[in-house]
Amino acid sequence: MGNCRLNVLTLCRLCADCIFGAKIILFLYCMTKLSVNINKVATLRNARGGNNPDVCRFALDCEAMGGEGITVHPRPDERHIRRADVYALRPLLHTEFNIEGYPSSEFIELVLQVKPAQVTLVPDSPDQLTSNHGWDTIVHHDFLAEVVSVFKEAGIRTSVFVDPDVSMVEYAAKVGADRVELYTEPYAAGYAKDREAAIAPYIAAAKAAKQNGLGLNAGHDLSLENLAYFAGHIPHLDEVSIGHALICDALYLGLGETIRRYKECLVVKR
Hints:
There is one protein chain. By secondary structure, the chain is of the alpha/beta class. It has two domains: 1-30; 32-266, Aldolase class I (TIM Barrel, Alpha-Beta Barrel), CATH 3.20.20. The chain is 50% helix and 14% strand. It has helices spanning 2-14, 19-29, 39-48, 55-64, 83-89, 105-114, 141-153, 166-174, 185-191, 195-211, 227-233, 244-253, 255-266, and strands spanning 33-37, 69-72, 96-101, 118-121, 157-162, 179-183, 215-219, 239-242. The chain has an eight-stranded parallel β-barrel with strand order 1-2-3-4-5-6-7-8, surrounded by seven helices. Helix 8 runs parallel beside helix 10 (195-211) and helix 11 (227-233) packs parallel to helix 13. The longest helix is centred in the last third of the chain and has 17 residues, at 195-211. The protein is globular.
């Protein structure tokens, strides 16, 4: 958001009395950031050993081609992103670095050492293939509150991965989180059949996040097919984290064109 604010300040000085300039300023503030999840690139590398594709180079290319953040999920078995990758990426990146994972003692230690812009807490078991549900922030209130306080004391923005349930969002605020990330697989699964019904709980959750002072992220199974509708109907959406679909699209479209298309889906005039 730093570069965006610089642009806004410049526009304010140049277009202080210009209605068109004011519209541009509002437009810029409504843009949602795209954070590229690069786990699948590490999966491809690990399939053959060696360092091809180079995860660090890929991340830097994503930034150069318009990506506004990099997301990684270092799992205990290191089946895609490795701990070494996390350490290697941190000094190279120029955009926001988001590390997601289950807050085990080892994960907490890693995040505190690397100090990314954001940590996203997910309730995955060590052997889970991919994230498939959010936290029950009521049941796990005390645990999450303790973990969140550790990261916030270190100056790391903390997001909690939740289902699109108003009560889960409200209790994420009570544990002290800065943001929630809405788990969007149910939206993606229901989009083709009835997109209005599929998005309804997300709109309610987004409004609850705003009312409780939380920033709002979203991720899981968002794609070129369903992203524009989602971004256009979810208020106050700060960031989306997209990996699998984006990497698949890049195989056919090229990385630069793919990132351009995803960002185009996020341009919402409010």
